[in-house]
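Submission checklist for the structure archive. All mandatory fields must be present; incomplete records are returned to the submitter.

[x] Identifier: Aminopeptidase
[x] Organism: Caenorhabditis remanei
[x] Residue count: 1141
[x] Sequence attached
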Amino acid sequence: MQASPPPPPTSSAAKMLYEEGETHDGLTIWTPSNPYRVRSSHRRARICVAITFGILMFGLGFSAGGFLHAIVFPDGSSSIIKIPSFLKSSDSFEVDNSTLIRLSDVGNSVELEDTTIVSEEREEEEDEDDDKGKKVNSKSSEDEEDSDSDSNGEKENEEDENEEEDEEKKKVKIEEESNKKKRRGKKEPKVNSDKSEHEENEVEETEKEEEKEDENEEESEKKEKVEEKVEEEEESGDKFVKANKECTNITWYSSRLPRTAEPIEYELTLHPNLTNGEVDAEVTIRILIKSETKLLILNAENLEMVSYEISKKGSKLKADFIKCEVMTQWAWKFGKRLHKGDHIKLKIKYTSQMKSDLQGLYFSTHLGTDGKKTKSAATQFEPTFARKMLPCFDEPNFKATFQVSIIRNANHIARSNMNLLMSKEYKDGLIKDEFEKSVKMSTYLLAVAVLDGYGYIRRLTRNTTTPIEVRLYAPEDMLVGQAEFGLDTTIRALEFFEHYFNISYPLDKIDLLALDDFSEGAMENWGLVTFRDSALLFNERKASVVAKEHIALIICHEIAHQWFGNLVTMDWWNEVFLNEGFANYMEYKCVDELFPDWSIMSRFYAENLAFSQEPDGFLSSRAIESDDDDSLLNLFDAINYHKAAAIIHMIAEMAGQKNFQSALIEYLNKYAYDNAIGVDLWKIVEKHANLQGTVSIPDLAKAYTTQVGYPLITVERVDDGILVHNQTRFLFAEGDKAEEKRGDWKWPIPISYRQDSVRNGAETVYCNICSVSVTWETTSNDWLLLNTGGVGYFKVLYDSETYGKLIKELKNNHSAISPIDRSMIIVDSYDLSKTSLLNISVYMDLLEYVEKETDKMTWSIVSKQLRTIESLIEDSDYLDIFQDFQRSIIMKLYESLDWDEQGATPNQKRLQVDIFAVACRLRIKDCTKQAYQRYLKWVSSGVRNPEHHMIALMEGVKQGGTTAWERIWKAYKTAISPSEKNNIIGALTSTKDVTLINRILKYCLDGKIKANLIPRVFSYFALNQHTRNTVWKYFKSHFNEFHVILGKGSLMASCVKCLAEPLSTENELEELQEFLKSQKFEEDGQIKMEMTYEQIELNIQWRKLNEAQLGKWISKWDERRRTLYRRKRHRHNSRHIVSAF
């Protein structure tokens, strides 16, 4: 257990010498701030004396000058200094109370330098001094004096103004630090406010003098280390240098909004023009002032202000408007303070321009079967894109209600979160739809849609507290025959979650909207859930069971969000796992309830725990909880979806499923329509769990959500017992960098284990966080298996004796070990073989049993692993033998399956598809023959089996050449089913013809293939070893064109990642880095590129560790195979000789 951290330095001297850095587990790192801060105290004293003397002389001179000026110019005028009229009187700069302020008249912002920002109160005080007490006749000044009863006519001086700005800056730092500590459930430290303003100014002046002296010395160093300097500035909290320079009028230097005000209600009127993309809008925000302030800040991005009006109790308030684009903030600076409890109303008229960038309010384009294009408008606000449609407090913990009105053409459909209240004629033949006031919710859940050419089908729920209207909207030519499954699944999911959470769905309707253009799978907007069309529409005759399961999981995920995320929302995005992790976990429980014959929970281990452990074993991984407020898009990844779901599953199993359900019900009731942090939930789970052990739920959750990565434990047999020891962070990479990243983190580990002698259950022990090792006695000397059920989020390295016994058991009686446990053994041994911890021969020995395997999930894992290995040994001299090995382990299962006989269960159907795909990839003759026959049947009669159709089309392209490719491309252009289009893309990319490869890539650029499908094109190309070089060459030569279409973020990086991940040599890595060196990616794209580089480095490491070792193993296997073949042939010949006699 770590010792308590020392207290932070509090003295003025300490803060002069050191800067406060990052905080890790309560320990704050203080470092020397800059070289010039560690100079001699004598020199510092001399400078302080000089500055003090200078200030005194300046004050004396200023007083004498003022006295003489008053004598010479008693009326306040001067022939020497000409003061601008707008500074002498507030009348010329005051808002006309009878009209709105129009920015077309006064400009976008009042951007003055810091030294010229003078409040109205300060101006009045100067006028009073100059006029020797004469009263200024300003109507607005009188109004403001009357409204501020606490001031009694007193004016603030310049020192108060400066002090206020200093206080604002300190408030930012204190609040940001407070937020970070709150996220982890830590208490806020007391703020030392004893330091006087004079001391702060003195220190600041001293530092400036010293910095000036060192400027020449540091200039060359700064030029060489620009990037390092930026990183240092970020670490010291100075992240917004650019904002400070561009937005000098705002004293709030943070991307987070201040907590001095919060929205109560938005009234939004929106008119999106689907012809030219122009949006005219007006929003009125009712705001509650939470603490005294002169500054109001909210978020806005790519919006153009037309006019604004601010009022309190019907009286208009005057404020200067400042626009800070780099911070996506709009601010108003008031002449007089707003007080706690004040209610103000902010009314803004503004315009914007819709784009096709899949963010904010954007265009979605549908190409109909008749070739006609129609445009609709839809929204995607998560995480911070609501500010692109309306000025708002765009953070999840600023919840409010929304009253939405949409102006549209008469032939269009408008939808929003709530039901339509009324429609009325507007003007010029337009219609204005007014929607009911929403429930209290976060801005990212607001949604609107204006649809052209859409239809819908509707049904009501029967088994919910009150009937809920469910509508599914889709383009009219895609609606018939594809909407029923999505609609039915949504209704059943609503009924399931109402029963599970024992809380009624809060709204009376929910819309499901299928969009052609959508960045994600779906988005859980409250009452208006948006989907990529392929994630919602399902055609029984044309789509496979794989697509059906995918759609069901996504729908259940989004309906789970209506409670986890919408009703109760995480306080900040650093704990987005409270939304996404829980929705990912609950989607499996929902589908398991709705479709029990799918056995969906048997896939949870592979699709969540094993899936997330791969990126979580990278050096570039991160903790589930993150304080990086500048890269929010990066939080929506495998860590927050799949790892978080695996951790939640582990905690639920520890607590007991019934207890866990009771805890969720209490949590949702307690924080309904509010925000929560992870600690809030874990404390409630702990209360319901009643664990009899030394590990608490909050401690375990904290370890797995705040620490990067996951543990590896080593298991070995000792005399009469089992020893678990050497807990360490698992990393794929090796070397000094890995050791540095590994750290000294520890996790409490719930270990369930099974032995051969105990076949009817598993026992559980805890590897405590403080323990070096744990031992338990056993009399059995047979095989041993830890982490049964794949529940614990860790990996296990066994000793050679235990591996030998597991290999033997799998070969002799693999069914004695459950399918999930078999999958886990394969996954862990494969991952460990990528390092020097386990020889790859152990993995290959374990793998030989799979010729008897019939479990779909295990085969899915194995086929992916073998394909990856094959891509890494393409240049080896034993590739053919390795492919023979794959054929040998799959042949028995392939021969047991019938192409014309569909599986009885979804899992059997999925197994068929996987095995046929592998067999055809390995060019097993019967498989390629059967697939091509089905392609010809589709060509002649249109008959298809949706489960095998993609395999048949791929074989058609491989054997049918250009003619087949053209025919399949024609089918793509007329396809209605999104799933069918995805299958066709897979077939088109299976060609070896360079001309056809370039054609499909050209179609990506000219719009024939939509932008959000381009990464899918590249992912399929990456699976075709014959096309990689051609595709990469084309991609590089048209890089800028793809950049324009895909942007500089995640979509573009995904394409590069698909093409680059198979690379496995130093030269290839250097070539890639050199090419991309001049290419700039946004933050979410850059992180993907870093992971791609790391993957290539791991490929290089794999080849160094395993290429020769695998070659030896394959040679021995080949020799065994040949020996066996000779023996069989000898026996066969012997029988013939005997029969001849």
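[x] Structure attached
Curator remark: The longest strand covers residues 261-272. The chain has a mean pLDDT of 82.
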